Input
Amino acid sequence: MIELAPITLREARAFVTAHHRHHRAPQGGLFAIACALTESAAVVGVVIVGRPVSRHLDDATTAEITRLAAIEGHRNACSMLYGAAWRAARAIGYRRLVTYTLAEEGGASLRAAGWRVVAESPGGSWSRDRRPRVDTHPMQSKLRWEPGDQMVASGRG
Output
């Protein structure tokens, strides 16, 4: 069995560094939540919530799941963390929570937690002539997800 557990951002970042499939740990965050084995308290998954990466979404009422990582074989850990992140974000006053997946990822854990796709980005590089960057992230198309009950919670529906 697994259960939610507190975790520091530092500990969550270390877990992401060790277990995420294609991203490094984010620089910072607002809060993190862990999933741990009930018997041993061994962490099997973490979610890190921070300010939105997109400046267009950074409106002081929107947060973003910037990383979620879990050890394979722990059923429901990811969907449990997605749900907990939304409940925690709402509890501290956020009205919107977003996250992104690569278009080729299935999204089963997000759907199981009641999230839905709301947008698709074409992907590509963030580098621009006036602000060159070295791309270290996947540049494929991405899907933006939001919790299905968010429209009611934010008063937008």
User: Anything to note?
Assistant: Strands lie at 2-6, 31-37, 43-50, 62-70, 96-102, 115-121, 142-147. The chain has a mean pLDDT of 88. The CA atoms of residues 125 and 131 lie 11 Å apart.
